[in-house]
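P.,

For your records, the input lines for the assembly:
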Amino acid sequence: MSMLLALLRRDLAQLLLGGRRGGALLPVLFFLAVAMLYPFAVGPDAPVMARTGGGVIWVAALLAAILPLDRLIEPDLELGMFDQWALRGISEELLVSVRVLAHWLSFGPPLMLAALPASALVGIDGQTLWLVELGLLAGTPGLAALGVLVAAITAGLRGGAALGGLMAIPLAVPLLVFGAGSLAIGGESGLGLTAAFSLVLLAITPFAAGAAIRAGRS
Amino acid sequence: MQECRIAAQDLACRRGDRLLFARLGFALGPGEALQLGGANGIGKSSLIRILAGLLAPYAGTVERAGAIALVDERPALDPHLPLGQALAFWQRLDGPADFQAARLGIAALMDIPVRYLSTGQKKRAALARLIGQGAPIWLLDEPLNGLDAKGTALVETLVAEHCTEGGIAVIASHQPFTLAGMTRIELSDFLPSPSGKGLS
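Structure tokens returned:
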């Protein structure tokens, strides 16, 4: 138990404050910047903005989740941390699970908070904002798991960060379809499917990412 | 110190399509030390990683009893953290053992971020992590790299004390390492025959 806490504490410190690689603030600012640019691009047409604003928030959230990919796994591989943990009998699956939790804590709740000012920028109403927030709550854990999974697979590759972004986007499409789709049909079914896909990603990631880290040793 | 043992049997290692060594074997019990010698690129580091269980051997088996501690070229200390905090993370995992900072000459560096430390200071910090882990089997990959003459003597003393307490040490180094009663294996004695028959 104390081991889990020590690992989570370190992961959170790394991802929230970020050391030299930029912390949790960067994705949030990026997210707000996209939301701010959107009205400039489509012009001050309130009905269009209200209809499409929720979708833009979803796209911005997805892109913001990709930003920290390169510091999720790779720095610890370079430092030899994963080897040291393996020698202490700590499984890669456990390490990855802790990291998914830390990654979600460092970008999920901040994005949900940032969605409040973003909703004003893209001009959506309170009912849509409520659905967006619920959708992000259901979808960001899946995005966090996907991020760690892709980071583990691409760690150590040349141009891994760019490749990681390209790999994550198609895999995140179901989350986007169901999450943003729930806004159009205005129902719980979309949210339910978003949560379901999130759960699938959360269930796969520890094993797939753990295997990727082990395979990277040889 | 807990009962410990490490034994390798008929080990072979392949990197890419090159066979580095074959039919390598040894057995070490409590208090024994072994130096792996040989030129650069002959497979010392790969052998250390195989012994640690981090790399699968191409052939052969490794038997281990007892926890393993590893020091290699990567210090495994967070570069942006002050040394004290970086070591404290491992202390939380390994238990509150004393890592003998004063003796290693790093007691005054605890407030300095790891990335500002010199190569030798980082090596000393990695040795502190090794001591703090309290594992009976030490695998040291080039432990003398970057250390000055005093540091070299210190590592030799530390390994000698570790073995006196019943621990095992395997040291991969191309440099001379002075330790009474230490066996030495030259990896060049285990080169596979050119035709690849070394594998059989």
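Two observations worth noting. The longest helix of chain B spans residues 149-164. The mean pLDDT of chain B is 87.

Regards
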